[in-house]
Amino acid sequence: MVSTFVAPAHHDARPFEVTTRDNRRLFVALDNTHSEVAWFLLAFFAVFSPGPSWASDTADELIREQVQRLGSDSFTTRQRASESLILMGDAAIDQLVVGLTDDSLEVRIQSRTCLRKTYDAKLDQGRERLLTIENADTEVELPLWRSYSTSVGNDEASRGLYCDLLDRYREVIVALSGDTLCGYQCPAPSQLNPLRVPRNDTAQWTMMLLVDQAIYSASLSTRLSSAMTRLTAGPNLACLPGSQRSSHDEALRRLVGVWIASPRATISDRDRLLIAMRYACRDQAIDICTRLLNQPHNDPRAIELALLAAAAMEHPSLANYLISYEVDRRTIHHCPSPRVPGTAFRTQIADVVLALRLYGRGLDPRSFGFANLQADPIFVFCPESLGFANSQDRHYAYDAAQHAIVVASQ
């Protein structure tokens, strides 16, 4: 059958849809009165020819001629050919790919443009479908969607964030998916600077994490880690104290969890734990805590943070860890006192254990010599606020605290 479509831009260009006997759909735009008869006859034979092979060859020839018209000296001819090829959709892709290697520079350029517009049209259709269908796992073919949904999920928040990405960073998403037909390229990791990204720009943070996952770059991973461990940088998600909720926050939070769980030699376990706690990635935080605390010879600063995180999350093995580290005298910090100018205090792993044991009994560690103690919304206590100015203060605090813990346990 033959159906007439309204031309998108030129009223004198008349696109026809033709369905061949082998169920191939093709579109042709008639350039002028003389070619109209020839095009119609070719379309007629393509439809009513006795065998599908002949019809297929005729359709390919029609498309091939349109591709060659992309190199015409006439702007109108080039434009009409371009519109026709875009209307053809998938049927024209093979010939447009051939056009990418044509001797004519104009044909190569226009073929690439047509491929991109055809691909964009398919992405727009897929995008609309993604927002309306029930099962996005099996019914949607969009670049990077399967790996993205595996990491982030396919609920409403995840779909919304993906569509935002597709609108703003379409070329990056297509390039990361491995599709090379459109000639899109992913930005070089060196061009991405997380410290310059607005904290509330969820889509841009997501794009950077996806780029680092797809093409691992030690420098980009380091910069992302540096940004997300700073209180004044990194994505400002709803899980952070004082932040405002965004509809995409939950999806990005899941992606952060996947990112920190990936093997990256440039990111320390301490930084991974700090990021996991900041962004409420509980499962990852539990795993990192367990890994750190099961290796007593780890960096004391990492052990300190793991103990505080374990207390904040009520780790099931917290009591055993506190016993394991209660006599660990390794120094973690040597910091100036914020309350007593001119003095400094040292923090040992055992000091952290003591403060957490008091906290677990409902006792305020400040009443037992922890004069610099500061609360922390994520880690119970600020890591840099534990410790004592001298050994005498430490001994006094330990004696008083041990007695109070015994009394509280009775």
Structural class: mainly alpha
Largest sheet descriptor = 3 strands, antiparallel
Provide a count of the helices. 17
Strand order of the largest sheet: 1-2-3
H/E element sequence = EEEHHHHHHHHHHHHHHHEEHEEH
Question: What is the 3D shape?
Answer: elongated
Stretches with pLDDT under 50, minimum 5 residues: 1-55
Measured distance between first and last alpha carbons = 91 Å
Determine the strand fraction and express it as a percent band: 5-15%
Q: Look at the structure and give the mean pLDDT.
A: 77
Tell me the total number of β-strands: 7
Can you walk me through this structure?
The protein is mainly alpha-helical and 410 residues long. Helix content is 54%, strand content 7%. The chain is built from 17 helices and seven strands. It has a three-stranded antiparallel β-sheet. Strands 4-5 form a two-stranded antiparallel ribbon. A two-stranded antiparallel sheet has the order 6-7. A hairpin with a 7-residue loop joins strand 4 (331-336) and strand 5. Helix 1 (33-48) runs antiparallel to helix 2, helix 2 (52-69) packs antiparallel against helix 3 (75-88) and helix 4 runs antiparallel to helix 5. The longest helix is centred in the N-terminal third of the chain and has 26 residues, at 105-130. The protein is elongated, with a radius of gyration of 32 Å.
